[in-house]
């Protein structure tokens, strides 16, 4: 049976994941490949509602609660949307997957990595846990990263993770580098122009 591919673009906030997801889909269309996209933890009505809770930094909660919220959103997106589309031969291009939770809740907030993996697997499946293609975007210029985030405008509530201090942000960036090394995931510099990044990313994806 024909199945699509599951592509994940990962990285710290402000590295340009969403932009690159859109560009990937444009290129896939040029090759007559149909695709869908989602941006974890958003992607369905239920997931979007959960995302509003996750992003609201005024709601105090611990790392386990964050894991459970993300897992609930992933269950909704993956089981009720992605699996069906992949079975039709469509490609799924996602900004983030559980690598984000390993970075933010695991290395950043100190939650056990195995706990994250076990609960994520129960909420999704093996296909989700092992994308066909994964790429991590990395930016070593913290001032530029923060500048890009600030262009999004003022939020009604502080963002749960973007508002955390520099020590936390350093842990997250270093976590992504560790995840990439341990899982043999390509790292692409987000210090480049959008087109330069897109060109490098496409070399790993082109059918």
Describe this structure in words.
56% of the residues lie in helices and 12% in strands. It has 207 residues and is of the alpha/beta class. The protein has one domain (6-205): 3-Layer(aba) Sandwich (Rossmann fold). A five-stranded parallel sheet has the order 2-3-1-4-5, with helices on both faces. The mean pLDDT is 93.
**Strand portion:** 5-15%
Question: What's the total helix number?
Answer: 9
Query: Uncertain runs with pLDDT below 50, 5 residues or more?
Result: none
Distance between the termini: 18 Å
CATH hierarchy class name: Alpha Beta
Question: What's a concise summary of this model?
Answer:
This protein is of the alpha/beta class and 207 residues long. It has helices spanning 17-30, 45-55, 63-87, 98-108, 113-123, 126-129, 142-150, 166-183, 194-205; strands spanning 6-11, 35-39, 91-95, 133-138, 187-189.
Attribute tags:
207 residues, Rossmann fold, 12% strand
Structural topology:
Blueprint: E1 6-11, H1 17-30, E2 35-39, H2 45-55, H3 63-87, E3 91-95, H4 98-108, H5 113-123, H6 126-129, E4 133-138, H7 142-150, H8 166-183, E5 187-189, H9 194-205
Parallel strand pairs: 1-3, 1-4, 2-3, 4-5
Helix pairs in contact: 1-9, 2-3, 3-4, 3-5, 4-5, 4-8
